[in-house]
Amino acid sequence: TGGNVTLEREGSNQYLKIAQSKQGSGLSVEALLNFEETSGKVYVEAKVRSDTPKTFFGAPYLYQNSGSSSILGALALRDDGQIMTTYQKNSASMSKAGDFAAGEWVTISLIVDSVTQQMQVYIDGRLAKADLPMRSALSTLGMLRFYSDDKTPGRPLAIAYVDDVSVYQAIETGAPKIKVACVGDSITYGSNGAGGRVGEADRYPNQLAQLLGKGYQVGNFGVSGACMLEDGTDKANAAKGYVKQTEYVNSKSFQPDIVVIMLGTNDSKALNWDTQSGKYIDDALSLIESYQNLDSHPEIYLASSPTVLDGSNTYGIQGDIVSGKIVPLQRQIALAAETGFIDVHGKTADATEQQFPDKVHGNQKGYQMIAEAVAEALLAEETPKASAIRETETVAVQTVPGIDPELPDFVTVHYEDGKIGIAQAVWQLNGLDFTTESVTVSGTLKGLPDQKVSAKVTVVDGAEDDLSAMLVEARKKEAEEYTIDSYAALQDAIGDAETILNDGGAVLDAKTALQAALDNLKTRHYIVNDNFDNADTIGELEGWERVGTNGIVELVDLENDGNKCLKLAQENKTEYTVEMRRILEPAVSGKIYVEARVRSDTPDAMLGAPFLYEKAEDISNSKQIRTAAYFRDNGRIDVSNQFGNSGVKQIGSFEAEEWNTICLIVDSETQKTQVYLNGELAASDLAMRSTLSTLGVLRFYTDDKNTSRNNLLGYIDDVRVYQAA
Quick one: angle between helices 246-253 and 280-292, nearest 10? Predict the structure, then answer.
């Protein structure tokens, strides 16, 4: 209603003329081209001309269909000769694509893609704008709009022309592309190690596509956290077996010509490998077979897992398991399944954090190393294979008469290329009774029936009698003669051996473990060994200092049996600090054991027993506490290894009038604390609360001033500081 659309002729050429006749709100003049809705990559092309450069002319605007009001993408001639494209719903998202002059024909091309949701703009055959986001989400394109509704006062009525309008898609010509499916975990997916993904072009499958060239179509079917193990999981107990992922289904629907499988990094996590390592080969062979059975009958390449850089990572991925266990098994799988083998692990052996910043995931350079290794294999004249196994090492084990030996799941193998690794074995025990002195057990490598393996089994008689005799000697060891950690290890070995003698089991293994625990016993070298029995007053205690005069500090004999202990008692909450210190002269460094028997008859009140410091001057500054143990809060036994409540860890509980033995093991070299409660490990590898160079003061005290709590009544006995001799 705002003008006329007519056909004009110049010689034999006809074109549309779109001309305003009036301006005002709601008035427009426009020509719409409707066509079958099309998806994918669509090319829109037109020759346009405006004789009124100041006045707006949309040439063209894109829509899904005639019933849609959402603009998908747009281009306009306007603003004194500017060609502008708009890709979001505000003027800030307008971008200049070129210039035009009055009466001049311009060829406009818009390329829109419903897959990438991006638009490219060409002006007169030259790229003007690339990778612009769509103004609205594009699913299909079905209408073009050429129009003007300019109502700006002072601007001339629009006069514009449109010719040679075409909408088309590319026709694939030539031989069909070779389809490559990249199957894997977050490394294939393209994770950046910071919770996101690297840019699309930087991901290894995308870089691989560039290296392979136009004759290949590469699909990325990576899944973050995915495992080769069908029952693989993560910390949240989510199912992470690749065959349980949607991308597994998608990768098969892709009907690939080539499949590159790179799975194993997440299998190395302790929560997977410790319980399921024996299933890795079977699950891998099953996965490979599922691809081999596709209608496209793809060629399979097994890629070894990339090198995990030395040092800790945040994912629980064990680099030593990847290199020492999983990569050798990947070689065995490739041989058993007769697939191609790509040594990505070897290709990344010299990588640094310049390529793998978080030690696991790559950046552009890291993923380039993987892409180059895969491209080299896929483009090779002959499919690369895993090195053949030259020989397997004979296994030597022991057993007792009539009992099947415990044979290892994995054996050491030597490859033709000179490398040494492991392989999974399948043993054949049928018909063997293990009654003679020596028995040879035969087997094969899993999946490789022609690769033989053998074990020499020595049958040892009287092993149970030997273990019983060893237990008699082990039980004679006295706790006070040895460091608490080495003695606790001995008690564990004794318990295991007793269980095996009573219930049956690996007697020889129990003997070995018990002997190792005996050999590892470390005797104590005492620095302090105070039991208070030979003194009558606290003034007679060598190395001890009472601080202040508050409360009651005295030696008492609770049971009237000659066994004295140190009593600390508050009398009120006004003069609330009651304290004794044990001074070490000289101060001690290295691995130090601090032990004491502690009793609190008032579980609600706080008793520090003990707090550790380098020197007495540090005690006034709570940030100088090296580590500390508390008895408090209605029966909690806590250890503090950081400043503030966040660093408090409960290690046990206590009741009134109950003695508990606490031992803090501090180490100035590792800066770690281990805690034993009543002879059992309660906490390990705790950080020091502040850096320890030497230990000089033990502090037993209360400063509980909370009037809602009882006055503290506590006792200390058998205070010992020692090191391993």
Answer: 30
